[in-house]
Amino acid sequence: MRGLLLCALLAALPCAARAEIPLSLSGQAAEGGLMLGKTAPGAHVTLDGAAVRVSAAGDFLLGFGRDAAGAKRLEVALGGERTAREIVVADRTFKIERINGLPGKKVTPDPKSLQRIAAEKAEINKARERSEAGTFYLSGFRWPATGRISGVYGSQRVLNGKPRRPHYGTDIAAPTGTRVGAVAAGRVAFVHPGMFFNGKTVLIDHGLGLRSVYIHLSQTSVKAGDTVTAGQDIGAIGATGRATGPHLHFGLTLDAIPIDPELVLGDMPE
What we know:
The protein folds into two domains: 16-89, Immunoglobulin-like (Sandwich), CATH 2.60.40; 120-150 and 169-265, Glucose Permease (Domain IIA). The protein has four helices and 20 strands. It has helices at 2-12, 104-107, 111-129, 261-265, and strands spanning 23-27, 34-39, 44-47, 50-52, 59-63, 70-78, 81-89, 96-99, 148-151, 156-159, 162-163, 170-173, 179-181, 186-195, 199-207, 210-220, 227-228, 233-237, 247-254, 257-259. Strands 9, 12, 13, 14, 15, 16, 17, 18, 19 and 20 form a ten-stranded antiparallel beta sheet that branches. A four-stranded antiparallel beta sheet has the order 4-3-6-7, with no helix packed on it. The longest helix is centred in the middle third of the chain and has 19 residues, at 111-129.
């Protein structure tokens, strides 16, 4: 009888409302965009069914490639609860430039150079396989250098009728020797003294798969394994590698997704 009375009493009590899983997003939902997310620690996050890396504190990142326009489904699950949100990635128009009549060697490197290019690509890809679990990027972003923007994300050249890989970064033209700073705090993952295309190169890991790359440098002032703060000197602008003049090619990627630096950094300071 006592058990029946207890059951009746519990049934009469109002049910407590289930707490909604916290979820906040900032950044740009556009092709080339990066969004910073925050949810509860221990939550599982997916985007269109693919798992998204989440830090112990509940931070995560979403990246959208050059051709990623359309609706995406973001889901967050925690302790049997689930919440979903639709993210509509805006379409963008990118510049296409056609150049004809170029000598073949200017379009396709010779076999020996191709071997070197493949070896260097394998080297930097190996560095990209390692990823920091921390969230260095939360320190904030800043432009690595100032100058004239001479190349933009997403533009593409068609050389002698052959479409080339889109330009995945921002080019900043400035005199040789202009100092270059880290776009955000992170750990230096790769430094190269002179790649075929990229010249002197620095790659920094900012956590959760977000990386920045700085190429055509005239000199480097960090080594692999160094921890850097936002704005810390990492080298200087140059024209090493395949470059027509002194400039910094600066790129951002989230794992294998190229991100538009200008969408992340905003307007360049004066």
